[in-house]
Amino acid sequence: MSRISLVLLILSISISAVFAQSSDSIIGKYRLPNKLDVEIYKVGDKYNGKIIALNGYEDGQKVDYKNPDESKQNTPLIGMEIIKGLKFDNKDNEWIEGKMYGPEKGMTFDLKVTEIRDNEIQVVGSKYIFWHTLIWKRI
Question: Which residues have CB under 8 Å from 64's CB, separation 6+?
């Protein structure tokens, strides 16, 4: 009986290891539903992201004119870091505690990445008690 238990234990550990996401599997380039292309990269033990292409975003918006800080309203969107501070949570296998700036509204939201698949990631953005789940496509 103990051999069967040992085999089952090894099998379950092997299967969970196959399905576990590594912390760096979030690194890459993604197309967001609003047509922005973002590159996510590692900075220390956290993950940030910057805009790398606009693809006709918001009818041609190229600068951050909706930013509530008037001194930043002429900042180009290309190269702007809009994702900051995502960190990998080994326990829940998610990236949590991130912040994302949305130039289409000039607002910052809480961000977490809940799942990574072959060609997409599932993200949850929230502000106060409101939240929204989106799929970003890997490019």
Answer: 72, 73, 74, 75, 76, 77, 80, 103, 106
